[in-house]
Amino acid sequence: MVASNAGEMAVLSSEEMVYNVVLRQAALVKKELKSRGDLDVKPDVVLPGTLNLLSEAYDRCGEVCAEYAKTFYLGTLLMTPERRRAIWAIYVWCRRTDELVDGPNASHITPTALDRWEARLEDLFQGRPFDMMDAALADTVGKFPVDIQPFKDMIEGMRMDLRKSRYQNFDELYLYCYYVAGTVGLMSVPVMGIAPESQASMESVYNAALALGIANQLTNILRDVGEDARRGRVYLPQDELVLAGLSDDDIFAGKVTDKWRSFMKNQIKRARMFFDEAEKGVTELSAASRWPVWASLLLYRQILDEIEANDYNNFTKRAYVRKTKKIVALPVAYAKSLISPTSREPSLLEKT
């Protein structure tokens, strides 16, 4: 809430609320840059007997990343060892958080359990990890200028999943997408680093990272419409369904109609707009960090192409990128990762 000129309280939109988090994270990184002159990791302060435990913790995080995110994992191998291990630790924490509400024990998860998970998060940020995986993340946040707020916000997204199964408009859906996926970009940029030659503002780089998370989650939603409907969930803006002449009943019926195709075309168009926004920031990342991000962006965007190829049947067909297309996308992503901020073509907006 903010005070208006008339002295009344105005409600911030979801995008405005999220942008405040972006500004906070960007300010934190700027502070680190000012005090240290760069974003290299802080030197280790290792207690006797803990070095091997930390190494084992990071290795285990790498194994989990390799098992569940093979393409992304391959891209991280080009990063410096410190950044690579830190990204693995963040990935594993995010996966563990997501599995609280989507994993095999999801039916037993309560708001109290999420409160306990958040308390564990606060402890590890204070250097008091609960287990091996927490230890890897605790070490990471001690080395890089990572803010706790995006992590807390992801947990809030899990709370939202427990209490909410409909979204009245895109503003509500945007906030959910930020909580469960946009946060990942804000967590990752301080670790991935920004190219020394980048002239982009810190805020614009973080906005692009946020956009990639939003785009990925919107793509997940469009891919999983049928699967979510079978769980009684509809992650689509209710007001836009009404405007398209559709309702939840149409989704539960699972029939592809002209109205559904038209609705889906607009939803896919929006997701692609977020991917386009995300592209602007990938080039600004440090050279060694670009490949995994480009790979993720290109492969996820192709899921939208597959939904179209399935004639918008996301009720009974699950769109996925075939292995052959993944193999083709990886060298394309690598080639794009070689483009530095100073060598890319400026956009029309930048030229004016």
TrEMBL record:
The lineage of its organism: Eukaryota, Viridiplantae, Streptophyta, Embryophyta, Tracheophyta. InterPro entries: Isoprenoid_synthase_dom_sf (IPR008949), Squ/phyt_synthse (IPR002060), Squalene/phytoene_synthase_CS (IPR019845), Trans_IPPS_bact-type (IPR044843), Trans_IPPS_HH (IPR033904). Pfam families: SQS_PSY. The keyword Transmembrane helix applies. It comes from Salix koriyanagi. Its EC number is 2.5.1.32. It catalyses: 2 (2E,6E,10E)-geranylgeranyl diphosphate = 15-cis-phytoene + 2 diphosphate. Keywords: Carotenoid biosynthesis, Isoprene biosynthesis, Membrane, Transferase, Transmembrane, Transmembrane helix. Belongs to the phytoene/squalene synthase family. One of its GO terms (cellular component) is plastid. One of its GO terms (molecular function) is 15-cis-phytoene synthase activity. The chain crosses the membrane at residues 173-195. It comes from the Eukaryota. It is an enzyme of class 2 (transferase). This is 15-cis-phytoene synthase. Pathway: Carotenoid biosynthesis; phytoene biosynthesis; all-trans-phytoene from geranylgeranyl diphosphate: step 1/1. GO terms for biological process: carotenoid biosynthetic process. The keyword Coiled coil does not apply.
